[in-house]
Amino acid sequence: MKICHVIYIPRFSGAEILVRELARDHAAKGHQIAVISLMPLEESFRSQQQLLEQANVDMAFPTRMLGKYGRFQFLTQQLRRWKPDIILGHAVIPSLYAQIAAKLAGLTQTSVINVLHDASQDDYASWYFQALEKWIAPDADAVVAVSQLGAENYVKRIRPVSVPYVIPNGINLERIVQASSQREQVRNQVFSVSDQDVVYLQVGRFNQIKQQHLTLQAYAQAAQTAEFTSKLFLAGIVEDPNYEQSLRQRVAELNLENQVVFLGARSDVPELLAGADVYLMPSKQEAHSVAFAEALASGITIVASDIPSFQYGRSFQGVDLIQPEQTEVFARRLTESAYTAVQVRWHRDLSAYAIEQTANAYLNVFQALSPCQ
User: Fold this and answer.
1) Is residue 285 a contact partner of residue 271, using CB atoms and an 8 Å limit?
2) What is the pLDDT of residues 337-365, one digit of tens each?
């Protein structure tokens, strides 16, 4: 089967990491895989591009920024060249382009799947996107949501008669297990901390929705009273430069330059999790977060937002869900979690979220749409 993924930007973010894992799994099963983007490659994705090349995945990324017409032209040309059996448009904008470009390319026998990734869990809250999906874009042959709420919102916003597939994001458990042996190396070479230091880690793109500013407020308060030394590491791509700059300014105002480190985009998140002691995720909203599932699988102590998409974490030990806007509570949890985190790695069974299961679920959808393949 020829399977094509359409993404917006090749960057180190949740949707693109899912695409990477699906592509590698399906390629290993003998399928032909392509990944096409609407925007040029970001440097943060360079290592992932190499992994895809090793898996013999075909890739086509624009070499410069394109306008709307240019994107349609580029995508249509690539689809005509590749002639896939299945096209997956990951998130609203790539899905719209994929649905229209498939028609422009004359791919009448190709099935197009709209994959809903939006962090707000309501991909079509915008009236503009609702109008485009309802009245401009051809109907997708199937809709996949990474959460039940995302599926319900699609039915409510777009097509009440549609019943989207719900396929939670999967993670590479083998990679996380392998990374666990590198704790000492990561603490020495990446974090530069001693055995006694407590390492707090937050991974996520720099955007208001990830609420790194709440982490800084709580950490500053906790650091004043804690009876141990610690460092806070913030990793992720810079999606909102102004927000990221405001965080740096806040660190300077709090005199925490020696305790807060901005790591930038990272491709070694499993290793970072192995070296850290407490994982922080005060997100305002999430869909089915790959980062949260990876943190659970790593066994690290977790302090995260008490939001719907994190509720399944309550069934695991070492997970504390809070209202991060309550700074005093957040700060207290940081201190309390540290005392056990340096001694305990929690054993959590995340086999239900293995990427192999996720990849097989997508293949089942493909087979239902193209039974002859």
Assistant:
1) no
2) 998 777 779 999 999 899 999 999 999 99
Q: What is the number of alpha carbons within 13 Å of residue 352 lying toward its C-beta?
A: 7
Helices in the chain by DSSP H: which ranges? 14-28, 46-54, 68-82, 92-104, 127-131, 148-157, 173-179, 183-186, 212-225, 241-253, 269-275, 290-298, 327-341, 355-369
pLDDT digits (tens, 9 = 90+) for 226-253: 889 999 999 999 989 999 999 999 999 9
| Cα–Cα distance measured from residue 240 to residue 190, given in angstroms and rounded to the nearest whole number | 25
Q: Which amino acid is at 250?
A: R
| Tokens 């800084």 found at | 216
- CA–CA distance from 224 to each of 109, 216, 251, 262, 332 (Å)? 63, 13, 14, 21, 11
**Using CA atoms, how far apart are residues 56 and 52, in angstroms rounded to an integer?**
6
Domains, the chain, ordered by start: 2-170+354-369 (3.40.50.2000), 173-352 (3.40.50.2000)
